[in-house]
Amino acid sequence: QVQLVESGGGLVQPGGSLRLSCAASGSIFGIDDMGWYRQYPGKERELVAGISRGGSTNYNSVKGRFTISRDNAKNTVYLQMNSLKPEDTAVYYCYADIRTLPTIVSRFWGQGTQVTVSS
């Protein structure tokens, strides 16, 4: 019953900005960590950023250009991407560690959204 729906991807010029959103819905007791991975063609998914329920964040080689945030009331995680570069072009996947029962946690994934940075 749990579903993660992503939005916000698209085509942007170098130096531009995008904001990705990922909303969880369904039979949710609570959400622990949330975050974003990205995947280049022919490569494994790599972590972009993660955020705990309490707001602790970690980033992976995005040089301070990206900011992850979440709205616990809306079960939504965001990725604000600024100063975008062509090497940011990838499919971005959100994830959420969701309690479908009070003590059972499973990782769920969004469907992926394409981000293309090109002039």
General description of the model:
The chain has 119 residues and is mainly β. Strand 7 and strand 8 form a beta hairpin. The termini are far apart.
What brief labels describe this structure?
mainly beta, seven-stranded mixed β-sheet, 119 residues, 59% strand, four-stranded antiparallel β-sheet, elongated
What is the helix fraction of residues, given as a range?
under 10%
Helix count, per DSSP?
A: 0
CA distance, first residue to last residue: 40 Å
Total E-strand runs: 11
Beta-strand fraction estimate: over 45%
How would you sum up the major sheet? 7 strands, mixed
Radius of gyration: 14 Å
User: Unreliable segments (pLDDT under 50, ≥5 consecutive)?
Assistant: none
What is the H/E order?
A: EEEEEEEEEEE
Mean pLDDT comes to 96
Overall SS class: mainly beta
Q: What's the arrangement of secondary structure elements?
A:
Blueprint: E1 3-7, E2 10-12, E3 18-25, E4 30-39, E5 46-51, E6 57-59, E7 66-71, E8 76-81, E9 90-101, E10 104-109, E11 113-117
Parallel strand pairs: 2-11
Antiparallel strand pairs: 1-3, 3-8, 4-5, 4-9, 5-6, 7-8, 9-10, 9-11
